Each structure stands twice: as structure tokens, then as C-alpha cells.
Automatic annotation (TrEMBL):
It comes from Myxozyma melibiosi. Residues 1020-1063 are annotated as: Disordered. This is Metalloenzyme, LuxS/M16 peptidase-like protein. Transmembrane segments: none annotated. Gene3D superfamilies: Metalloenzyme, LuxS/M16 peptidase-like. Residues 1026-1063 have a biased composition (Acidic residues). Residues 197-333 form the Peptidase M16 C-terminal domain.
Length: 1063
């Protein structure tokens, strides 16, 4: 394959990075200036990043509004949502983001086939968007028939503009950069500017910036390069010649250089918050040019050295102290033409904002004082080695890692030769260079870039009066608008909106959709891993003999091993060891303390074999040296919440060391009362935040009400643990030994060889002593304890309360004063067997209902009843559910879902053929997404095949099964499983809402025949005791802060509860 195939695109770089299995090529069209980067990586998902460099001098939000308007249709495809709808068919999803210096459009597809068919349509949207006035009206800004300010972009920015981080960032940027620099702009658009932004202005911006020589297509995955070049060359051929005579300036690169700061500025700014107890500090520095890769690497590791772990300098001096000055210190860089270095100190007590700024520089200055000799070169070198490995790991695991570098190179590098790209991605030699630096080099670096130069410090302080003012101003604005417009004026606005919506919502013709045949799922290249087994795991498979992997294991004593080890052989430079433990062995009354044991697990003193004790700092430091990450989680791969998983990531050379760490952490650790106190303190600090979030409150309530205290799913819930937390905190002061004794009892019960399923994901050929490491090292202390049998795996459905076991008839109303929206989950009993005959049809039906442009999307989100609605299905816990988030009125949304589901069940509504195909396609792409790197693929395989007991090839069988689902199957499962979700006698409802709404809802649910329980955990009474006064004025919620920041947790909760995709 060469670039010779197309005459317009020439290959300008061909790089095989030394550190990860991939090949990076870049092509450049000298005729149009278009750029194309292909990162070959073996993974099922193909990802595209289409980047436009976007510089703007003002806060009008042109870059962000354009990002939205691009999706509203193109000349050849003038339909809103076409890309999403086609994406449903082609195993794809689309997205985009607007940064300060660029707008990036993404396309993610399972397999190359679907990607190839969508690419031309997507690119057509980028180069020939309709940018209609109607689209601008609905998407950007308008006033609706009730006098409220709306518009997708406006509402989005309304939620962001008054957040502390946005305010601090913008203030810092306005000082760091001159007004004329694009770096000083809020490219998302400030509300004031969005109100007056015209479609003409957006079009002008489009004409100036969206041009072929300012566009770079980056594609990562397993791609047919010939076909890709052909497709892009065809696209390039439709683009106009680059006219050298009227060459337009390159954003940022051709702009006047940013002057260096002349003086340090410390600025106190307000952000709105009812709670005035803590604020944040942002400290920004001007760094070196982005192209100075060596200095940037050095500064990156320096900031990591200063902030990363509990034993780093700044955390040790500012956070891990008796009265913390902040709860969090983060560092990051903005990779602009000159790098910007940022330090964030979060949750700083308001009275100490100035102090923390001064203290931070004192600490840094002392550390950089050569005479004091404080700099820890050994730890710095550990940090460098680890950061290098982290980068290698990320570039192997995540497609975005190399794509991000390609975007930076496109924005600031050499466009026409590819040299800067080679410099950026070719090797990791810069890490080696700085590994050789001496202390003096590091101190020089600290002085040159942090201490001897001016900086900007923003002290962001909370202001209750500002919060109140913003709320009142919002109300006043609506009142005034209504008054000025009068009923007639408002009516006209309503009409104008309606006609714009009608113009936007033109139906996509089915025959257009049918031109894009659904790709063949069999062509999606899922990652294959080979299984091997040792010891007790051997009983789980018959087919080992003859396999290469098994032979290696057998030679190392797999047949005699007195432990359970399951191996997944993967192609990777990295390995993981997971330990899966059942919580069923822990005595029920001790179970809650598991929270503390786990939080303390990786950062506690250890007694070594020679009797000496490593303090916790040494443990943290050495663990970091030997592993890339260590963590614990409840469940395994997001399911089976009665299990616990301990995880280690490392290079295969450190296998024996990691096995020894596991032994030491489980059996040789010491409970240090001072450390335990810090653990308890930190947990308590996190709780108020959780109580402010609707989805967390709902999730917690379902766990506390449906599971018994025997269930880890319940006791590991932070809100369930809250009461015990206070008790433990008191006990740690009065009788610490009592706490330690309980923890010792948990440890003795939990960490036994019988209760341990060890799972190794690695290139098995790279492991020395893959099996005997466990016998020789892990069981060194426990030879007599060799396992004869394994503790069985418990399912959450074994620990249900009577109510949880037989759902129905109850409605719980959970008051959350900080929210104006409602969040609800409805549960009914669902199938419990992983091989239930209805599993495939239920999966397709859920996917169908929640599809983009599907029934819930149109009927609930589209009608403005809620921001989102979806299905939950967990065979593991035997439940099926419906959830709605950010609803204006949860009950109305639930009722609408009932009508929709009822229509399908009764045969009144027909299943749309294209949408069913789309639903199947979405399941395929979700499965590919979940398996997009070898480790994730291996974990999912173990979950499906072993823990769920579905046997080998479970994933393939599932994907084959969903394709055979018929309309009759869908009607059947709707009747059997979905209709009961909306019947009083079989459904249990959990609603989090503003306390002002509970009484109304109580009446509504009672009329439907529910037994209603308001505030089952007395949360309002507790708030009262804590002395916080609550204002709950109705109608002030539009675009309130809370609404926006819930979007992230939606993601996380969704993946937690509904990822049964491969049942
Ligand atoms: Zn947006």
C-alpha cells in the first residue's frame, strides 16, 4: 500500500513508535491543504477525530454554536439527527467538543465497514452545513412562549458559566493572554453574548475557519488503509483548490505572539454558592513552546512529582495534614502554542485562600533551595519511569492518547512535512534524557518556570449573596420579558419557535436510511484472548489440553497448584492481576467496616519478613515503583456486587513482585490508628456532595431498601455507612483497639485461599513462573492453608429484603433540597437465569426504547419531559427497571413511558423495522466498545464465561442471539416484563425531588394506589440538625448548577446498572 494510489494526498510521515504496537501515518493534500492521520491499532472500534483549528477574539461562542449546528444537516443531507440515526444502523456514535483552540468532531464505529459508509456523510456536514436560521434559533438562543430563555447551547452554558472552575479559568485566561488572543476567549459562549449572537456572525466565522487547509482527519483503529485513502481522496477531490494568493492566516500560529507576563497577579473572585465554607485556588504559569518536547516532558514529570500521590511534596504539606488546607491538588497543562501550566487546589477553607497561595510558594521555594537539600532525586526517577510506562500503557489501551498528540501536532506543528509529528510520537527518549538529570537540573527547572517568573493566582471564594442575586435576576428577567411582550408577544414567540422546530424536524425518509445497509456484525474484529487455568480453576474447563498457553502453565505445575488461577493470554506490554473475593464470608455485623479496610488497603504500614516495618509512605512509594496502578472495587467488571475485586496493573517483569505485594497487603499489613482516622475523615468529607446529587440519592435508596444488611451492595453504599462512620470515628478516639480488632476479624475471614479467585491477564510467555509464583511466594506464609474447595459466588438476589424479592406497590419520595429537577427509578422483578430464553429479546427491547430518535427519545426527551430516560436490566439481581433523570415532573415522564410501552405490548404501536435494526446495532457497538482493549476484552470474557457460567464463546452466542429476535419476541417481552414496570402492584418507585414537590407527588402516587413513604431515611431532619437552612423556591431551577453537573454521573450510573449487554 502506498500513497501513490491517490494523486492529491501524499504520505509525509510513516512512524512505528517504539513503545506501543501501532503505526502512525500522515498524508497531506498539497492541492487543498487537507490532512489525514491514520493510527493503525488492533481493536474492534474505529475512532475518527475530525479537528478544526478555531481561534476567535471574543466570547460570542461561535466555535461552540457551530459545533452544534454542524449536526443539524448538510446540503446533501438536510436532516437534523441524520448522523445519529445512521449511526444507530452502522454500529456508530458521533460526538464533538469545543476546546479553547479547536473543535473536534468524533465518529466511533464497531468495525471499518460502518465507519467507511458514514465518513462521506459526516464530512459533507463539515464542509457543506446548512446553517439555517431555524437551526440557529432552536439550538443557540431563543425566548419561549412562557418568556423563558432557551436554546440548547444557551442552556448548556447557563449551567456552566457560574461554576467556580469556569469563573476562575476565565479570569486567569483574561490575565494570562491579551484580549486579542484566542486563548483569552470563552469559546463556549457567555450567556450575555449568546443572547445577541446572530446566525450571520456564525456563518462568517464558519467561512473563515472551516476550510480544507484548516481541517485534519485522524483515524485510529483497524482500518483498510487503501479504502480509507480512496474515500478521503474522493472527498478531497470535491474541495476547492488552495489559492496561494489569498492564503488565510493559520489560527494561533500566524497570530501575534503572546507576550510574557510582566508581573504576578493575585485576584480574588466570587462564585455563587449558598455554602460559603470553602473555595478554590487556581495558579497558572506560562510554559515553554509546545514544540519544546523535552522541557514539556520535564515539567510534566515535575508537576507529577509535586502533586500526584499522598507522599508528593504539595499533598504532604497541604493536604495530608491534621487540618487540611485543601482536599485535592491537581496539576494539568493546556497544550497551547506555549504550554500553560495550571495547579488547582480544591475545597480550600474560605478564610485560608490567601494563606494557601502563600504557603504553596513557601513550600516550593524551600524545596528548590539547594542548601536545604530536600529534593528527592530517587522519587523523581521513580516518577519518570512510571510516567513513561503510564504513557505506554495509555497509548496501547486508549485510542485517544495518540489521537490527542496528532491534534496538537495539527494545531501547532509543521503541517506540510510531518517532521514535528515524528518528533512528538516517534519515541519516548525525552523520558530517558530527564532520567539522567541531576538535582541541580531539577532545581533550575523549578526556578526557571515556577519560581523566578510571574504567575497568576485566582482565589475563588463562594458568595451566597451572588447566588441569590443570580436567582433573583433570572426571575426578574422572565417577569420583565413577560411584561414587555404581553400575551400576544409571547404567543408570537411560541409560534415562531414551533415553526422553527417544524422546519428542523423534517422526517428523514426511510429510503435515505435504507441506502446505508447495516454492516455485518461478523466483520467486527473482536479481540480474541486464549484461556489457561491452574489449580482449582482447572475444574471449570475441559478443553485445555493441547493449547499452547495451557502447556506453558502445565510445565510450571498448573495441575498441582493449591490455588485458583485463571489466565487470559493477551497481546500486550502490560499485565494485570485481579483477586476476586466473596464478601459472604465476612460476619454480617462486621461487614460495614469493610469500607474502612478497603479504603486503607493500599496505604498502610506493613511488617516485612525480617520483622522490620515499612511505614505507609514507604509502602505507597514502593507500590508505585512496582505497579502502574492498584485499586479495589465492589463487584467484578461492574456486576455481582457481593464480590470484591483487588486489581494491580504492572509490567510482566514485575509479576513476582506483585504477587509478593498481594501477600504482604493481605496478611502482613498493620492497622495504624492515625491512618484510619484520616481515612474516616476523608470519607465523611465526601458525603454532603453525594446527598446533593439526585441520581446518587435514588441509587442509594434502592440499595438500602431492597437489600438486607448481609449484602455488600448495601453496606458498601456510602450513605448507608454514614451512621456507622460517625460511630467508628468516635470509637477510634475512645477505644481504637476495638476498631482494629474488628478489622482483624474481617481480614481473617476475607483473605483465605478458599476465597480467592486469581485472574491473570498477560502475555503468558512473558511471565517467569506463571503458576509457581503463587505457590512459592503467595503461599509462603500459608502453606497449610492450601484450598481444597472454593467459596461459591453469591448473587445480590440472594440478599434481598422481602420487599426486594417481591417488588410492587410502594413509592418512596426522597427529598433533595439542592435539586429542582426530579430523578426516578422504577423497578420490577425480572428474569434471574443468565440463559433465560427472554434475555436476547429484553436486550433488544431496551435498546429499542432508548435509542437516539427512538420512542423514549421522541416521547420523553423530545417533548421536554426529562433530559433523559432509559431502561435498566440486571439479571444478576433479578430486576428490570426504568429510569428518568432531570425530569420536570417524574410522574408525568413515567406515565408517558407507560403509554409508550403499553402501545407496543398491546400491538397498537408497531415496531419500526429500521429502529429494530438500529437497536441490534447499538448492542453490537456497545459490546465492541466494552471490549476495545485486550484487558477489557479478557475481563468481560471471564465475567460471561466463568462467573455467569455461560461457557466458552458466550459473547459470540449472545451477539448471534440478538440478531434472531423477532417482532413477536419483542411484543412477548414487553407484555411479560415491561408492562409490569408500570403497574402499581408490580412496580416499586423511587423518586428524588425538591422537598417542595413531595406533597403533590404523594397525592398523585396515592391516587394510583401506591403506598407512599416520604423521606424514609429522615434526611430532612438531619439537614435541620446540621443547621443548614433550605430555600426551595419553585421555578428557579432552570439551568441551575445542579442540572448540569449531573451529566457525568448519568454516564457512570448507566454503565453500572445497565451494562448487562452480553447476558
Ligand atoms: Zn455543547
Amino acid at each position: 500500500m502506498t500513497s501513490g494510489r491517490s494523486n492529491s494526498l501524499s504520505l509525509i510521515a510513516d512512524i512505528s513508535p517504539s513503545y506501543c504496537p501501532s503505526r502512525v501515518r500522515k498524508w497531506f493534500s498539497s492541492r487543498t491543504g487537507l490532512q489525514l492521520v491514520l493510527v493503525d491499532q488492533d481493536r474492534p472500534i474505529v475512532e475518527g477525530y475530525f479537528a478544526v483549528a478555531t481561534e476567535i477574539e471574543d466570547d460570542s461562542g461561535c466555535p461552540h454554536t457551530l459545533e452544534h449546528l454542524i449536526f443539524m444537516g448538510s446540503a446533501d443531507h438536510p436532516y437534523k439527527g441524520l448522523l445519529d440515526t445512521l449511526g444507530n444502523r452502522a454500529f456508530s456514535s458521533t460526538n464533538a467538543w469545543t476546546a479553547t483552540d479547536s473543535t473536534v468532531y468524533t465518529l466511533s464505529t464497531a468495525g471499518w465497514q460502518g465507519f467507511r459508509s458514514l465518513l462521506p456523510v459526516y464530512l459533507d456536514h463539515l464542509v457543506r452545513p446548512t446553517l439555517s436560521d431555524a437551526a440557529c434559533y432552536t439550538e443557540v438562543y431563543h425566548v419561549d412562549g412562557k418568556g423563558h430563555e432557551k436554546g440548547v447551547v444557551f442552556s448548556e452554558m447557563q449551567g456552566v458559566e457560574n461554576e467556580a472552575s469556569t469563573i476562575a479559568n476565565l479570569h486567569a485566561k483574561k490575565i494570562l493572554y491579551p484580549d486579542s488572543s484566542g486563548y483569552s476567549s470563552e469559546t463556549g459562549g457567555l450567556m450575555g453574548a449568546l443572547r445577541v449572537l446572530t446566525n450571520d456572525r456564525i456563518r462568517q466565522f464558519y467561512e473563515a475557519l472551516y476550510r480544507p487547509d484548516n481541517l485534519c482527519l485522524i483515524i485510529v483503529g483497524s482500518v483498510d488503509a487503501d479504502e480509507l485513502l480512496e474515500t478521503v481522496a474522493e472527498f478531497d477531490a470535491t474541495l476547492p483548490d488552495l489559492d496561494p494568493a489569498s492564503k488565510k492566516p493559520r489560527p494561533f500560529v500566524d497570530s501575534p505572539p503572546v507576550p510574557r507576563l510582566q508581573q504576578t497577579t493575585v485576584k480574588l473572585v466570587d462564585f455563587p454558592d449558598k455554602d460559603e465554607s470553602s473555595g478554590h485556588v487556581l495558579i497558572s504559569f506560562q510554559g515553554p513552546p509546545a514544540t519544546d518536547v523535552l522541557t514539556n516532558t520535564a515539567l510534566h514529570v515535575l508537576l507529577t512529582y509535586l502533586t500526584e500521590s499522598d507522599v508528593s511534596l504539595l499533598r504532604k504539606k497541604l493536604v495530608e495534614i491534621e487540618v487540611p488546607l485543601a482536599t485535592e491538588i491537581e496539576s494539568y497543562t493546556e497544550d497551547f502554542i506555549d504550554t500553560e501550566l495550571d495547579l488547582w487546589l480544591r475545597n480550600v477553607p474560605t478564610s485560608k485562600l490567601e494563606l494557601v497561595h502563600a504557603t504553596l510558594f513557601d513550600v516550593l521555594r524551600e524545596h528548590a533551595d539547594a542548601a536545604r537539600n530536600e529534593f528527592d532525586l530517587g522519587r523523581m526517577r521513580d516518577v519518570i519511569r512510571r510516567e513513561k510506562l503510564q504513557f505506554m500503557l495509555h497509548s496501547e489501551r486508549y485510542p485517544s492518547t495518540l489521537a490527542t498528540l496528532a491534534i496538537t501536532d495539527f494545531l501547532y506543528g509543521d503541517r506540510e512535512t510531518g517532521k514535528s509529528l515524528v518528533n512528538l510520537v516517534g519515541d519516548l527518549d525525552d523520558y530517558e534524557t530527564v532520567l539522567g538529570w541531576e538535582v541541580s537540573d531539577w532545581l533550575d527547572l523549578m526556578h526557571k518556570w515556577l519560581l523566578d517568573v510571574p504567575h497568576v493566582a485566582i482565589l475563588a471564594q463562594p458568595s451566597a449573596s451572588l447566588a441569590k442575586k443570580i436567582r433573583l435576576d433570572g426571575k426578574e428577567r422572565v417577569r420583565k420579558t413577560r411584561e414587555e411582550l404581553g400575551e400576544q408577544g409571547l404567543e408570537q414567540l411560541a409560534k415562531k419557535l414551533k415553526s422553527a422546530q417544524d422546519e428542523n424536524n423534517r422526517k428523514i425518509p426511510d429510503d435515505l436510511l435504507e441506502q446505508f445497509p447495516a454492516p455485518d456484525p461478523a466483520k467486527v474484529r473482536f479481540i480474541k484472548t486464549a484461556t489457561g487455568r491452574a489449580g482449582l480453576a482447572l475444574a471449570e474447563g475441559q478443553q485445555q489440553s493441547g493449547s499452547e498457553v495451557q502447556e506453558i502453565l502445565d510445565k510450571d505445575g498448573a495441575r498441582e497448584a493449591p490455588v485458583y488461577v485463571h489466565y487470559e493470554h493477551i497481546k500486550s506490554n502490560f499485565a494485570t492481576l485481579s483477586v476476586v473475593l466473596s464478601t459472604s464470608v465476612v460476619p454480617e455485623d462486621k461487614l460495614p467496616l469493610l469500607n474502612i479496610l478497603l479504603a486503607n488497603f493500599y496505604a498502610t504500614p506493613i511488617e516485612l519478613d525480617d520483622g522490620s516495618v515499612l511505614d505507609y509512605e514507604a509502602v505507597v512509594t514502593r507500590l508505585k515503583r512496582d505497579t502502574l496502578s492498584n485499586s479495589y472495587s465492589s463487584g467484578y467488571d461492574g456486576e455481582f456486587d457481593e464480590l470484591l475485586t483487588l486489581d494491580f496493573e504492572f509490567v510482566p517483569e514485575n509479576y513476582a513482585k506483585v504477587v509478593d505485594w498481594l501477600r504482604l497487603l493481605m496478611w502482613r499489613s498493620k492497622f495504624d490508628v492515625a491512618r484510619l482516622q484520616i481515612v474516616v475523615e476523608k470519607m465523611a468529607m465526601g458525603i454532603p456532595e453525594m446527598k446533593r446529587t439526585g441520581t446518587t440519592v435514588v441509587r442509594s435508596a434502592t440499595r438500602r431498601l431492597l437489600f438486607t444488611p448481609r449484602s455488600a451492595a448495601r453496606v458498601l453504599d456510602e450513605l448507608d455507612f454514614e451512621d456507622r462512620l460517625q460511630e467508628v470515628s468516635a470509637l477510634l478516639k475512645s477505644d481504637p483497639q476495638a476498631v482494629v480488632d474488628e478489622l482483624e476479624q474481617i481480614r481473617a475471614a476475607l483473605f483465605t485461599v478458599e476465597n480467592m479467585r486469581l485472574i491473570v491477564c498477560s502475555d503468558v510467555t512473558k511471565l517467569v513462573d506463571p503458576v509457581s509464583s503463587f505457590t512459592k511466594i503467595l503461599l509462603k506464609d500459608k502453606k497449610s492453608a492450601a484450598a481444597a474447595s472454593l467459596v461459591p459466588i453469591t448473587r445480590t438476589l440472594e440478599n434481598l429484603t422481602p420487599e426486594g424479592a417481591s417488588l410492587g406497590g410502594k413509592a418512596y419520595l426522597l427529598p433533595v433540597p439542592s435539586t429542582e429537577s426530579s430523578y426516578a427509578t422504577v423497578f420490577a422483578n425480572g428474569p434471574t437465569a443468565f440463559d433465560d430464553a427472554d434475555v436476547h429479546a429484553i436486550a433488544v427491547a431496551c435498546s429499542y426504547l432508548e435509542a437516539v430518535e427512538g420512542p423514549f427519545w421522541r416521547g420523553i426527551r423530545g417533548d421536554g419531559l426529562a433530559y433523559g430516560a432509559g431502561m435498566l436490566r440486571s439479571i444478576e439481581s433479578g430486576r428490570i427497571g426504568f429510569r428518568v433523570y432531570r425530569a420536570a415532573d417524574a410522574l408525568v415522564a413515567i406515565e408517558r413511558a407507560r403509554e409508550i410501552v403499553g402501545g407496543y405490548a398491546a400491538g397498537k404501536t408497531e415496531f419500526e423495522k429500521l429502529l429494530v435494526e438500529g437497536a441490534v446495532s447499538m448492542i453490537v457497538s456497545a459490546a465492541a466498545e466494552a471490549d476495545n482493549n485486550p484487558v477489557d476484552a479478557a475481563e468481560r470474557k471471564y465475567l460471561q464465561e466463568v462467573i455467569k457460567g455461560l461457557g466458552s464463546g458466550a459473547n459470540e452466542k449472545f451477539l448471534a442471539g440478538i440478531r434472531e429476535v423477532t417482532s413477536e419476541d419483542l411484543v412477548r417481552v414487553m407484555k411479560r416484563w415491561f408492562v409490569p414496570l408500570f403497574r402499581t402492584e408490580s412496580a416499586s418507585v423511587f423518586v428524588a425531588c425538591n422537598p417542595s414537590k413531595t406533597e403533590g407527588l404523594r397525592g398523585d402516587f396515592e391516587r394510583l394506589g401506591y403506598e407512599v413513604v416520604v423521606d424514609p431515611f429522615d434526611s430532612l431532619k438531619r439537614v435541620g440538625e446540621e443547621g443548614s437552612e433550605e430555600e426551595s423556591e419553585e421555578g428557579s431551577g432552570e439551568g441551575s448548577e445542579e442540572e448540569e453537573d449531573s451529566s457525568d454521573e448519568e454516564e457512570s450510573e448507566e454503565s453500572e446498572d445497565s451494562d448487562d449487554d452480553s447476558d
